[in-house]
Amino acid sequence: xHALAAVLVALVGLIHVYILVLEMFWWTSPKGRKAFGLTxxxxxxxxxxxxxxxxxxxxxxxGLFWGLARADxxxxxxxxxxxxxxxxxxxATASRKILFVQSLPAALALAAVLxx
Length: 116
Description:
The chain is mainly alpha-helical. The protein has one domain (2-115). It has six helices and no strands. It is elongated.
């Protein structure tokens, strides 16, 4: 069970690295605009805000990887909880898709960490 928990925590971390890349570097690209349903004009006018969001997603990923590297279960639990809550907020305010991309993987990883 420990291996499954570690894999799920790493998966959530990798998802957030990908979100970082989308928001910080690809926001105005066709791939970034498609991922978030943006017009070119809106993407261009909000790229600084998106880069800030991406940086925060990077901090979540770093915390998850740090918790894995140190085998620090409380740190893993804390950062997974942050991801879960952020996903709930994003699903309620921005897009329901965030519930499945962010909150569901975090919830599964939280359950695995607790059971391990």
